[in-house]
Amino acid sequence: MIQQEIIEFLYTVPLMLRVTLIGSIPAIFTIIGSLPVLLNVKFTEKITDAGMGFAAGIMLVASFTSLLLPAINHGNIVIAVTGFIIGIILVKILDVLIPHIHFIRGYHNVGYSYSRKAWLMALAMIIHNIPEGMAVGASTTYDVTEGLIIAIAIAIQDIPEGFATALPVLNIIKSKRQAFIISAISGIAELLAALIPPLIIVFVHVALPLMLAIASGAMIYVVVHEIIPEIYGHEHNEPSTIGFFIGFIVMLLLDNILS
């Protein structure tokens, strides 16, 4: 059980500060996940793919147990399905309109300068992290315990994800410090994205179940469109699959133990 004192304290602080505190958890862990690049620690491609599979498993379960099901319970199935579809469309629009390079399958032989490649990849990281931040913000607004559960789960998967996204940047610009900074920026973007749902909900109270469903749709889009294609193109299918199921089970356990 999460200590009751922490829960009670978080309920005493204003909503935006509460979301900021909880939203800082995955942002910090994204930065921690980028540290191996700064410290010149190297992981094999197989380990990286397994870590990203782990991240996908956590995100998939969290999208349902901590976002979509609460959206149905707090609203209704129509609101949940509508929000889910909106979430998919919103991330798809970002994916199409904002120039970026996919952080594993898209950085080879692209006709841009090294500096521009790095920042285009940074935009890919930010697009990837926005749904995660929104998920934390929406779930925290709904319930502090749920918010902490999803923040901790996303933080765990942000460690391999942070490294997996910083490594291609390092391969492009050959600067450990700049690769670390660019990856850290994506973590900060995740925190800022967490503030979007409560800002909307403060003005439109009935938007809470809709925001939960939007975050769920956005997260699942990222899993299906971004993460899974990234990890199944390197002939490491078995580690990626094992990592996915471990992440899936870990999130189920977190949801059960901490709630």
Global Rg: 17 Å
Query: Runs with pLDDT <50, length 5+?
Result: 104-112
| Count of all domains | 1
The number of distinct β-strands equals 0
Largest sheet: none
Helix content: over 70%
Architecture overview:
By secondary structure, the protein is mostly helical. It has one domain (44-258). Helix content is 84%, strand content 0%. The relative contact order is 0.24.
Topology of helices and strands:
Layout: H1 4-12, H2 15-38, H3 45-74, H4 77-97, H5 114-142, H6 144-173, H7 176-194, H8 196-203, H9 207-231, H10 237-258
Helix pairs in contact: 2-5, 2-6, 2-7, 3-4, 3-5, 3-6, 3-9, 3-10, 4-9, 5-6, 5-7, 5-8, 5-9, 6-7, 6-10, 8-9
Q: What labels would you give this structure?
A:
84% helix; single chain; 259 residues; mainly alpha
Outline of this structure?
This protein has ten helices and no strands. With 259 residues, the chain is an all-alpha fold.
